[in-house]
Amino acid sequence: MALLAYTALDRLVRGMGPHQPWVLYPTERLGDLDSVQPYQVIYLDPEVPRELWRQPGQQEAAR
């Protein structure tokens, strides 16, 4: 499992598009996040292919 993290909002928009939901999360608390949803690696500011970007009005897929 990978955690995609963005160091600035403009980098999130460039990497995942303008319709991606986001939260601000302090890096010193990433251990708390790992205890709820474990991850093995963190990728900073990755650019995701446009065909995978969230579209306007698109809802999260059911788990």
SSE arrangement:
Blueprint: E1 2-5, H1 9-16, H2 30-36, E2 41-44
Parallel strand pairs: 1-2
Please work out how many helical segments DSSP would assign: 2
Number of strands: 2
Cα radius of gyration in angstroms: 12 Å
Q: What characteristic shape results from the CA principal axes?
A: globular
Strand/helix succession: EHHE
**Strand percentage:** 5-15%
> Between the first and last Cα atoms, what is the distance in angstroms?
15 Å
Explain what you see.
Helix content is 24%, strand content 13%. With 63 residues, the protein is an alpha+beta fold. The longest helix is centred in the N-terminal third of the chain and has 8 residues, at 9-16. The relative contact order is 0.30. The mean pLDDT is 90.
Question: What characteristics describe this protein?
Answer:
63 residues; alpha+beta; two-stranded parallel sheet; 2 helices
In brief:
With 63 residues, the protein is α+β, with helices and mostly antiparallel strands. The protein is 24% helix and 13% strand. A two-stranded parallel sheet has the order 1-2.
